[in-house]
Design a protein that fits this description.
Number of strands: 10
Radius of gyration: 38 Å
Number of helices: 11
CATH superfamily of the largest domain: Reverse transcriptase/Diguanylate cyclase domain
Order of helices and strands: HEEHHHEEEHHEHHEEHEHEH
CATH architecture of the largest domain: 2-Layer Sandwich
Strand content: 15-25%
CATH topology of the largest domain: Alpha-Beta Plaits
Strand order of the largest sheet: 2-1-5-4-3
Helix content: 40-55%
Length: about 325
């Protein structure tokens, strides 16, 4: 029977070491020789720290002393990554099992060392692939919500975030403002200087809008040469000031092949307005801002027009012929 145990010890596929209370190696099997690159005669009588990476050797002595003071079985599968050192100084990832035993009254520890290089490589590869998939997912998420040319929100994301903003405005009984911006004579830029310059203009305008708008404002590219901005908490007067600031910032953009200007239409949700479903309210404000935008275009471009002022102006124009006729 003893011969059987000796053969099991010798030919088990894991490296086996027997450690005495002083931490010296008293037995080693063939796999230990193969794994660590030592002859058995070089291992016997040496402290187990000969197989521990130098940077961990000092702390390992303390861990070993604590383990021997309160011996207990330690199964495979450490919470932290473990490394062993070969004779040539190279390191390899390992898993270790410790099992205390008493042989002829001597307290010994059986140390089973398993090379997990392949498993570790597979885990690292899986982690790398997982990280790549997460990065790809994040990039796809970004593309799904942002315009590829300007980096601003796309129209889908604008609807989503502005809908939430309008819901907040109604709940808090606050004002909210919607601005639609259209670059004046943009087709002439493409026709005269090419689409590459047109793209540069769009990118410059997007960066200017982002830098000029408040951090809490929602800035998006509507498509083509149109942009949109949604802002919470601006009154009608404040929204006109904000729109004028954006118009002036666009007109001040430099380093383009020709000056650019923008016409802006503005619509405001007043506090205390009758509550509406956010998507319906957004559609209404967009329609109002769009009408104001075309009024600004008709009036000569490079200007701001609020929907309320546009309606009042139209009403005055409708009344004037009747007044002249009456007089």
């Amino acid at each position: 029977m003893e011969i059987i145990y000796q053969r099991i010890f010798e030919y088990t596929p894991d490296a086996l070491l027997v450690i005495d209370p002083a931490g010296r190696i008293t037995l080693a099997n063939a796999q230990a020789e193969s794994l660590f690159g030592y002859d058995r005669s070089e291992l016997i009588g040496q402290p187990i720290e000969i197989l521990v990476p130098a940077r961990f050797a000092g702390s390992h002595v303390q861990h070993r002393a604590r383990f021997l003071a309160e011996t207990h079985s330690r199964p495979m599968g450490a919470a932290s990554e473990l490394s062993a050192r070969r004779k040539d100084g190279s390191e390899l990832p390992v898993d270790i099992m410790l099992s205390p035993m008493i042989v002829q009254g001597n307290h010994l520890v059986l140390c089973v060392v398993r090379d997990i290089t392949e498993r570790k490589a597979a885990q690292d590869e899986l982690a790398r692939q997982t990280a790549e998939l997460r990065q790809l997912h994040a990039e796809l998420e970004l593309l799904a919500k942002h315009d590829g040319l300007t980096g601003l929100y796309n129209w889908r994301a604008f609807y989503e975030h502005t809908g939430q903003m309008l819901k907040t405005a109604q709940r808090r009984c606050e004002s909210a403002t919607l601005l639609i911006l259209d670059l004046d004579h943009f087709k002439q830029i493409n026709d005269s200087y090419g689409h590459a310059e047109g793209d540069r203009v769009l990118q410059a305008v997007a960066a200017t809008l982002k830098a000029t708008a408040r951090q809490t404002d929602i800035v998006a590219r509507h498509g083509g040469e149109e942009f949109a901005v949604a802002a919470l908490g601006l009154s009608e007067a404040e929204s006109l000031v904000a729109a004028e600031r954006l118009r002036s910032a666009i007109a001040a953009i430099e380093n383009l092949k020709c000056p650019i200007t923008a016409s802006i239409g503005v619509a405001t949700l007043e506090p205390g307005a009758p509550p509406q479903e956010p998507s319906r309210l957004l559609a209404e404000l967009l329609d109002q801002a769009d009408q104001a935008l075309y009024a600004a275009k008709r009036n000569g471009r490079n200007q701001v027009c609020h929907y309320t002022g546009f309606i009042q102006t139209d009403a005055e124009q409708d009344d004037s012929p009747a007044q002249e006729h009456a007089s």
